[in-house]
TrEMBL record, chain A:
GO terms for molecular function: ribosomal small subunit binding; rRNA binding. This is Small ribosomal subunit protein mS39. It is found in: Mitochondrion. It comes from Patella caerulea (Rayed Mediterranean limpet). The keyword Mitochondrion applies. InterPro entries: PPR_rpt, PTCD3, Rib_mS39_PPR, TPR-like_helical_dom_sf. Belongs to the mitochondrion-specific ribosomal protein mS39 family. One of its GO terms (cellular component) is ribosome.
UniProtKB/TrEMBL annotation, chain B:
This is 28S ribosomal protein S24, mitochondrial. Pfam families: MRP-S24 (PF14955). InterPro entries: Ribosomal_uS3m. Keywords: Mitochondrion, Ribonucleoprotein, Ribosomal protein, Transit peptide. Coiled coil: none annotated. GO terms for cellular component: mitochondrion; ribonucleoprotein complex; ribosome. Belongs to the universal ribosomal protein uS3 family. It is found in: Mitochondrion. GO terms for biological process: translation.
Length: 660, 155
């Protein structure tokens, strides 16, 4: 007790002294810094024209401090995702349970929302200040009814597209007057939501697992819809009406309609908004007959933009690059991209990540494109710190990783991409992108990097960020065998215990790489323990299936004959005769349970182990099994037994018959 | 009435241990750690069940907070029926209410529940209570797989 107290005191004293030392050094550093500054400033002060230069005010938002604080932290790879419960019982062990739990939680939220909608009267008590609209029960009933302008306004306000259309037709039948402002608002509503009710909002858990890749390819705008009819009905077709309808058509990929309306605007000298130009450039040119025509359309629109006295923004260039991305197979597209980027630089506009995604689309269009654009882009992002807006930019990272693993196969680029993605929490986005991103990254690492680094990355991302699938396990074990990183196998094995769905696919892989060579004693003992747990699990599974009523979705362990042979080899390497014998007898007693043909070397080593342990009966059993299955080396094994063991007369005779 | 109103004998002081469970003849009544601590040990070996600042100087809404806490406790007890292994702890931080507690992993040790059910209930309670109390509500539960793990002592 006394000694421990003493040692604690010592430690405290040592810490204190270290702290005070640190403090004094920092103080002296401060002083020196100040004096240097003073020295530098004194000549200025002594001069007659001394002026105090007040630095420019840096505009700060209400969340600036929070953002600054947030930039100092990053995701803890050992922490589970926020939407899951950090508890051993409730934490999912594989991808499928993870998805199920997240969606169950979202389903619970939906149930609660349903109750709130059904009984809004119980949720009226509001103590919040300022008022939080999101927690109030949603308004489902309309305040005003009947065909009049007020009711129409209310439906527009509540974003009820179908009801608004129905009411508008009613108003038109009764030939009532509606103000132009309301009609334009209605047109806005119809064009923004494409004449349909807005889709239901997804919960955070659902966006991760359910959101689909929504790259627009097909036309969603229907001809002669309510929006077009309303546009024709308008008494005076103002600029706002034209801009709205053109934007709506372009967004719905009705390019021809949009272009004809756009030409109408030009003829009637109606000013076009910048946003309308954006949509026209991005989507309006999609149905152009050839790439050449498409590019000429884009350039014509850019000229028109200039004529109207508008200044292009980042969004404009993004749309131009997106149009270029969709004509990536054009021979001059790379040239055009470089021209666009040069123009951006001239105007001092920093490209965003979605711009770069389109650039990559153009530069790596064919599988044999080997330009160094990707490296340049990644270095640029790495150094310039281009703003990364979380999961919005997931598409860029996904695309960059895909292009990299298909063409360049550069580990450095992949590592940089992964570090950036993790730092900016891009990886909490939709799981289908994230899993492909990590799968590509991990496979690349397994192929081209050392096993030490692979395992370093593995420890950081498994299991909370991403879990390996069968393909990646195959690559990982290849890398383990190549770099002889057998010491990592016990860890990988214990990690994959949780995911029973995959276990059957991988178990034979693990066994075969464990059986490759004989290892030093401690590691070999660990391998033998794994083999023992496998065989006892197989036996208990068989008993469970045969004795009890089998649950409908019970997954029993499946082993192949080669796998069993490998298990015997592992046990022989570890000098565990009883275990090897148990595996062999299991195999002999259940000949139909194991697929494939057992391999020879496992049995010769078992025979040798029998000889070492002086078990003639067992050795003869093994030899008989070898002969029955026509395995090679049967005869040499028999000779070995005959020469190296002391046998009874009956056994000698039996072996003699077996040879003949 | 008047006859009963006057007390002439001295008080026996028999029931002074409020909040302390009585022992049973065979000493077989299980108590959890929290239950085993007498009330005067609150703040020493046991913490409070509600954490908020309503009793500090110039902080109002003591009554509202208490009633809200009662409501939350009843709601959680009803929603996680037969599942709660401990008292419900309610912490208020900034504009957030954090509800903690222990849950049983199985009902009467027969069949263990699918964790999906817990996730459903957690999502449901969080959303409904958020709408009711007009502030974000988060639930942080841990699961006790064996009922006997909860027993601190038997009296």
């Amino acid at each position: 007790m006394a000694t421990s107290m003493k040692s604690i005191r010592k430690v405290i004293l040592w810490n204190l002294s270290k702290k005070s030392r640190h403090f004094s050094t920092s103080q002296s550093h401060c002083n020196r810094h100040e004096t240097e500054q003073l020295k530098r400033e004194t000549p200025k002060l002594s001069g007659s024209t001394s002026e105090i230069v007040i630095p420019n005010r840096i505009p700060r938002g209400p969340t600036s401090i929070l953002k600054a604080l947030a930039s100092t932290v990053e995701r803890d790879p050992n922490a589970p995702a926020y939407y899951l419960v950090d508890d051993p019982y409730l934490y999912p062990t594989g991808f499928i349970p993870k998805k199920n739990y997240a969606l169950s939680k979202a389903a619970g939220k939906r149930a609660a929302k349903h109750i709130v909608e059904q009984h809004p009267e119980f949720f009226q008590n509001d103590t919040s200040h300022p008022k939080v609209e999101a927690f109030m029960p949603p308004k489902t009933e309309y305040q005003t009814t009947g065909a009049n302008e007020e009711a129409l306004k209310e439906r527009i306000e509540m974003r009820r597209v179908k009801d608004a259309i129905a009411l508008y037709t009613e108003i038109k039948l009764e030939e009532m007057e509606v103000s132009e402002e309301t009609l334009l608002d209605l047109l806005d509503l119809l064009c923004v939501y494409n004449n349909k009710d807005p889709p239901e909002e997804l919960y955070g858990e659902e966006t991760i697992y359910l959101s689909k890749h929504n790259r627009k390819a097909a036309k969603t705008w229907e001809d002669f819809t309510a929006a077009e009819k309303l546009f024709e009905d308008l008494p005076r077709k103002s600029a706002r009406a034209y801009n709205t309808i053109v934007t709506g058509m372009a967004k719905g990929l009705a390019s021809e309609n949009a272009m004809s309306k756009y030409n109408e605007m030009l003829e009637n000298r109606i000013p076009v908004d910048l946003e309308t130009f954006h949509h026209l450039i991005e989507y309006g040119t999609m149905t152009a007959d050839s790439h050449k025509e498409k590019w000429s359309l884009v350039t014509a629109m850019l000229h028109e933009l200039k004529n109207q006295g508008l200044q292009p923004t980042l969004e404009t260039f993004r749309c131009v690059l997106s149009a270029l991305g969709s004509m990536a197979s054009h021979q001059n597209s790379t040239h055009y991209v470089m021209k666009t980027l040069a123009e951006m630089k001239k105007l001092g506009i920093e490209p965003s990540l979605s711009c770069f995604a389109n650039v990559l689309d153009v530069f790596y269009n064919k599988p044999n494109d080997r330009s160094d654009m990707l490296k340049k882009v990644v270095d640029y992002i790495w150094e310039k710190k281009v703003p990364i807006n979380g999961s919005d930019d997931l598409h860029f990272f996904f695309l960059a990783m895909m292009k990299n693993s298909r063409t360049l196969k550069d580990v450095e680029i992949a590592t940089k991409l992964e570090v950036l993605a993790r730092k900016h929490d891009v990886i909490s986005g939709p799981v289908q992108y994230v899993s492909v991103f990590y799968s590509l990254y991990f496979k690349l690492l397994c192929m081209y990097d050392t096993i030490e680094h692979v395992m370093e990355v593995y420890n950081q991302i498994v299991p909370h960020i991403w879990m390996l699938n069968t393909e990646e396990y195959e690559e990982l074990f290849k890398a383990v065998e190549l770099y002889e990183g057998y010491q990592y196998i016990p860890q990988i094995w214990s990690d994959m215990q949780f995911d029973l769905m995959k276990l059957n696919d991988i178990v034979n892989l693990v066994i075969s790489s464990m059986a490759k060579v004989k290892h030093e004693e401690q590691l070999q003992n660990q391998f033998c323990d794994i083999a023992e747990s496998l065989i006892s699990r197989w036996i208990s599974d068989q008993q469970f299936i045969s004795t009890m009523r089998r649950p409908s979705r019970y997954l029993s362990l499946m082993l192949t004959a080669t796998g069993m042979g490998d298990l015997i080899t592992i046990s022989c390497n570890g000098n565990r005769f009883n275990q090897a014998w148990l595996i062999f007898s299991t195999m002999k007693d259940n000949p139909n349970s194991f697929e494939g043909v057992p391999s020879g070397p496992a049995f010769t080593s078992l025979v040798e182990l029998c000889i070492q342990n002086n078990k003639p009966e067992q050795a003869i059993d093994v030899v008989v099994y070898m002969c029955e299955h026509g395995l090679p080396d049967g005869k040499t094994s028999i000779e070995k037994i005959q020469t190296q063991m002391s046998l009874t007369d009956g056994q000698k005779e039996y072996l003699g018959r077996l040879v003949n | 009435m008047i006859k009963r109103g006057i007390q002439t004998t001295s008080c026996q002081c028999k029931n002074i241990r409020s909040g302390i469970p009585k022992t049973t003849p065979f000493k077989n009544k299980p108590l959890s750690y929290e239950e085993a601590q007498p009330p005067y040990r609150i703040g020493v070996t046991k913490a409070w069940n509600s954490w908020n600042t309503s009793n500090l100087k110039d902080e109002g809404k003591t009554g509202e907070t208490t009633i809200d806490d009662m409501f939350i406790r009843r709601f959680v007890k009803g929603t996680f029926h037969y599942l709660l292994a401990s008292e419900v702890i309610i912490k208020r931080r900034h504009n957030m209410i954090i509800i903690c507690g222990l849950l049983f992993g199985s009902y009467q040790q027969r069949m263990s529940h699918d964790p999906k059910k817990y996730y459903f209930l957690i999502g449901y309670s969080e959303e409904l209570l958020s709408h009711f109390l007009k502030c974000p509500v988060k639930m942080e539960f841990s699961v006790v797989t064996d009922k006997n793990d909860m027993v601190f002592k038997k009296i």
